[in-house]
Design a protein that fits this description.
492 residues; alpha/beta; TIM Barrel; 2 domains; seven-stranded antiparallel β-sheet; 24% strand
């Protein structure tokens, strides 16, 4: 008899081994009521050629976190691209004298480990009058003296790291809060000014525009109109935005409208969710903090946003690798618990959170070997799908479904979750019937991404007629589960 039970995952710090197994105090338990097969085997960074994912390593320029405390945790996470800030004020504390030692240590170590730094040319530098501030929400350099000094610093930084950094970003969240200094036109001019310097030194690099703090469609329109009038859209490879919302699936319409504006001025420009995440503690500092978050809801939020972005062809950076201990005069003056690693007050790494392991399960499955099944849509009567990819559910609840096909084997994987609300702290499942037409699933299994549990679908719970599959009483909840061909899942 096959045992049917819930699956509990036991974790340990990767400092002792890249094979992350063992025990910590956090043990998520999700009851699937299906025969348990095993768990998803994570993949090391050097096992993955490329993927849709990036991880935030921000605030190192202000010492709110310490790269050397968490660097051992990155490779087992299976992500290559690291978002960082260049830190003008940390590098140039005396006029015209650059101390690169802090940043050299980080960039050199990251590249040696096989990571790809994505480096931002911010913030400002208060040693220059009109030089802007060094915190979130600060104004950009605006005086002639400060702008000239900023340009020299950018040129020096790009020259220094051009063989190691191939991905740049100009400024962080120019429209943060009620900031009225960084108008769309000032921000656009600043982006053009910076990008021109970078491209002159490093013509083949990628540059991210805008890094919008929240989706403001008028701001996007004015920003891109300015770029278009200056014939400058070609300087940029992608446009980034940050959008913190309590329900990670609730911003699709705003993103769609933003994409329409971008396509009007820069057709085909890539959209990148440059920063997004949820706290692991309720009432903590930063965006969407006033909700009773816990590690379980944080993990649900991150996995839902990662797969929603993937399903809509949006690159995705998770914020952040570790909790950040904010200090100083910035708008946040307490620990920001959006890290997927817990930190102590002295920035030492304590342990990975539930979200860390959930993200490992996502990166193990979804990489460059899969391509999205385009045109997948919901059909109440699946028989009317014809040869088009289609699915149906026996519920009127809102459910996200995205399908992917392995480029080599042509086998499929479907990501499914209830998307109508902010993630809940409970493990309540709904047993739903799922039907999908024109699928390629020789040996279908269910994967629960928070724990990484892999489950058999008993013979009496599924059937196949042609290329249409019917799955009965499949447990679905407000965090993604997968129905996948077993060949696409690494099992340990």
């Amino acid at each position: 008899m096959t045992e049917i039970r819930s699956h509990r995952v036991y974790y340990a710090s990767p400092r002792s081994s890249d094979n992350i197994e063992g025990v910590t105090s956090k043990k998520p338990e999700v009851k699937m009521n299906l025969p348990y097969i095993g768990s998803v085997k994570p993949r090391h960074t050097d096992e993955i050629e490329s993927s849709n994912w990036m991880i935030g390593c921000e605030t190192l320029d202000r010492d709110y976190a310490n790269y050397h405390e968490y660097k051992e945790y990155i490779a087992p996470l299976g992500i290559k691209v690291l978002r960082m800030q260049g830190g003008w004020a940390k590098t140039e504390k005396v006029h015209g004298i650059y101390d690169w030692s802090w940043l050299d240590q980080i960039i050199d170590d990251a590249v040696e480990r096989g990571f790809k730094p994505w480096l931002q040319t911010g913030y400002g530098n208060p040693i220059y009058p009109g030089g802007g501030g060094e915190n979130l929400g600060a104004g950009m350099p605006i005086s002639p003296e400060a702008l000239a000094a900023y340009e020299k610093w950018v040129a020096a930084m790009v020259t220094r790291y051009k063989d190691k950094v191939k991905d740049w970003e100009v400024w962080n969240e120019p429209n943060f809060g009620d900031n009225t200094v960084n108008t769309p036109e000032i921000t656009a001019d600043f982006n053009v000014r910076t990008a021109a310097i970078i491209k002159e030194i490093q013509p083949d690099t990628k540059i991210s525009a805008l890094a919008l703090g929240h989706i403001d469609l008028d701001y996007v329109e004015q920003f891109f109109r300015f770029l278009s009038e200056k014939n400058a859209t070609g300087l940029f490879h992608n446009v980034t935005y940050h959008d913190y919302v309590y329900n990670p699936d609730s911003n699709k319409l705003a993103v769609y409208k933003m994409r329409q504006i971008v396509d009007k001025y820069a057709p085909g420009m890539i959209m990148r969710q440059g920063e997004n995440g949820a706290p692991s503690v309720g009432g903590a500092g930063g965006a969407i903090g006033d909700y009773p978050w816990c590690e379980f809801t944080q993990a649900k939020w991150n996995v839902r946003r990662m797969l929603e972005n993937l399903g809509n062809d949006i690159e995705c950076s998770v914020f952040s690798i570790i909790d950040m201990n904010y200090s100083g005069n910035g708008p946040i003056r307490r620990k920001n618990t959006k890290g997927i690693i817990e930190s102590a007050s002295d920035n030492t790494a304590v342990r990975p959170k539930i979200a860390y392991y959930a993200i490992q399960h996502v990166t193990s499955v979804f990489d460059h070997t899969l391509e999205r099944i385009k045109g997948l849509r919901h059909l109440h009567h699946i028989a009317s799908a014809g040869s088009a990819p289609a699915y149906s559910f026996n519920t009127d609840r809102s459910v996200s479904v995205y399908g992917y096909c392995n480029k080599a084997s042509n086998k499929h994987v479907y990501a499914i979750w209830m998307d109508e609300a902010t993630p809940r702290a409970d493990h309540e499942m709904k047993s739903l019937d799922f039907q999908v037409a024109n699928a390629k699933l020789d040996a279908p299994v269910v994967v629960e991404l928070i724990t990484g549990g892999i489950y058999e679908i008993p013979a009496e719970q599924w059937s196949k007629e042609g290329d249409t599959y019917t799955f009965r009483n499949i447990p679905v909840y407000d965090s993604p589960i997968l129905i996948a061909d077993r060949s696409l899942i690494r099992i340990r």
